[in-house]
Amino acid sequence: MTNATAKTDTSGMRKPKREYIGILYCLPYVVVFLFGMIIPMFYALYLSFFKQSLLGGTTFAGFDNFIAAFKDEALWSGFRRVLIYAAIQIPLNLILSLVAALILDSQRIRHIAVPRILLFLPYAVPGVIAALMWGYIYGDKYGLVGQIASMVGATAPNMLSEKLMLFAIANICTWCSLGYNMLIYYSALIGIPTELYESARIDGASELRIAWSVKIPQIKGPIMMTVLFSVIGTLQLFNEPSILMNSAPNVITSNYTPNLYAYNLAFNGQNLNYAAAVSLVIGVIVMGLVAVVKVIGNKWENK
């Protein structure tokens, strides 16, 4: 009797229904990702297999656009310029961000919220506005740099010259993103158990030694995350050169960076098909470099 009742109760139990409400929360992101990334990417792939001519109209070109892109010296000169820029900006940005986070975490600064907000505030400034603002500051005659130099009777350096342009752009991007990276490092540092610091201090370690041997190894993950973000950001450099082009048209040409080159091909050169092929080549190269950085980062994190 008892067994029969148990069987009846077991068979009468309803299986829990699957909750599909989570899909509704993900739906806005999926829609934006689909229409903002996936569909345009496949449309660019479609366009890249065609070419337009005045006489023949639109004709199938196969891989001709991709072959031309790999042979395009204008594209590769932009990549070389961006790699030089990355060698300047990425170490400078990450080192300054890490130093700022370590100083804030040292617990030797009073009213820590003030410097934290001041460091993060430039990140709230849109990149276009930052480029316009710094373009005025760099002015050797009427800008802030030029006015300060004239006050002391010196000649201001032309920050928008060919030799200093990459440094000028690196300074703008570092000014904008330093606070963001600092906040990531600082958030990771405050999560480290204080017992590790106390043990190191008992062993006689200095604050510099604690930062190098205890704090930095504990935040390898956030460091690699910011490195990946920085690599992607530098290889997609566009806003700053496009804004500063008006102030230095002889220095920043239409192919100054790969993204700027693809943009000018599509909207100024009216060559959508070749621009689509160039953009896809840029995307593949960026993904390849990010994968290499990711592999190296994983080995460093696992040490």
Question: How would you characterize the overall build of this protein?
Answer:
Residues 4-10 have low confidence and may be disordered. The chain has a two-stranded antiparallel sheet with strand order 1-2. It is mainly α. It contains 14 helices and two strands. The longest helix is centred in the first third of the chain and has 33 residues, at 73-105.
Tell me briefly what this model is.
The chain has 303 residues and is mainly α.
Layout of helices and strands, plus pairs?
Layout: H1 2-12, H2 21-48, E1 50-53, E2 57-60, H3 64-70, H4 73-105, H5 113-120, H6 127-137, H7 144-151, H8 165-189, H9 194-202, H10 207-218, H11 220-235, H12 239-244, H13 258-268, H14 272-301
Antiparallel strand pairs: 1-2
Provide the descriptors you would attach to this structure in a database record.
mainly alpha, 303 residues, single chain, globular, 14 helices, two-stranded antiparallel ribbon
Strand order of the largest sheet: 1-2
- The percent of residues in helical segments reads over 70%
The radius of gyration over CA amounts to 27 Å
N-to-C CA distance? 64 Å
Structural class: mainly alpha
Number of strands: 2
β-sheet strand percentage: under 5%
Helix-strand string = HHEEHHHHHHHHHHHH
Net shape: globular
Quickly count the helices: 14
Largest sheet: 2 strands, antiparallel
Mean of residue pLDDT values: 87
Low-confidence stretches: 4-10
